[in-house]
Design goal:
2 domains; 16 strands; 411 residues; Rossmann fold; alpha/beta; 6-stranded parallel beta sheet
Amino acid sequence: MNKTDCDIVFLGGLFPEETKTEIINNSVGLIDNAANNLQWNLVRGLDCNLKCPVKIINSLHIGSFPKRYKKLIIPDYDFNHYSNVKDINVGFLNLSLYKHFSRIISVRPHLKEWALSTNNKPKIIIAYALTNVFTDLLRYVKITFPDIITIIVVPDLPEYMNTTNNAGVTYKMLKMLSVRHIMSCIHYIDGFVLLTKQMAVPLGINSVKTVVIEGVSESIEKRPVSGNIFDSDIISIVYTGTLHERYGILNLLKAFMLIDNSNYRLVLCGAGDSEKKIFEMVKFDDRIIFKGQLMKNEIIDIQKNATVLVNPRQNNEEFTKYSFPSKNMEYLSSGRPLIAYKLDGIPDEYDAYTYYVQDNSIEALSNKIVEVCSCTHEYLTCFGAAARDWVIKEKNCVVQAKKIIDMISEM
């Protein structure tokens, strides 16, 4: 494999392995594990495609003190994701609203130091994601060092990020101003890594270099299936992820409760704005098992021993055409069958590896669960294995990152 020789900085908000446990322990409420996993997968994929690994300049994507994070001051510290590569986590004052300015001010000197270093290689900065902080930093880089190529990974459009059904008027107003600021920085970005092709239209970047990467499979290695953690007669329906109502989690509970079979179990893992309602529904159906937010290894064990995995996000909102659920990629990588809805942002190549629900009725979801779970264990195992093998081969970190490198080469 021919490797590209260039100097790439990955500007992210991932969790360094050295401090991941501390970050999780200090977080209050929902932790964005999907974003962390995608960033690490991209870094690993980029490293495999480059002669020299990327340098990570990191500014943690965490909640603000004190409501969503227990520490006010985030320190600077070095870490190493690759031998002989000195990465840095840049500290900031983690106070709501002010933290955005603090992060920008703190990161700038590190970007400047890197930009001024001479190694006679093309310099590229890849940022994750389309946030106020990182678009502002890319604007700074492009104005100060015009020859540096600026790339941004767009997992979600800014207007659909960090949204719940409980948002107040003040939050919505600040959100609107944030989106306007982000859009004002768009023309300082040379290339975009999108999760769906439809994202290009609202971003107004049809004439700019883009590449579509729906996500990255969880691992290029197969997950071994261990002994069943459920009783042999139990049919386990599993959902692991964000428990926001707009993602259809309550519809999944309602659909499950229509199934009149004592051998069925619905296992839910995660956190979100539907937790109180979930606790209420658990009181009426003891087949529902709510485990809360778990560590990744625990989630993997539950996933790989499920009868089926369900993503109840429906294709009934505008944002679904600009979204490829990371949950689908994670589920497909598990080796167990996936039940989901065909969102506008999902390419047709995934159709052969997903059981789609026919319509948005609760009954349709319930019927699809029963239909799939009525198949033999051997058939479901073969179906899940085929999906796993395909996604690991076609969507692994090396393959997906090469698309970004190819786009950069064209520049």
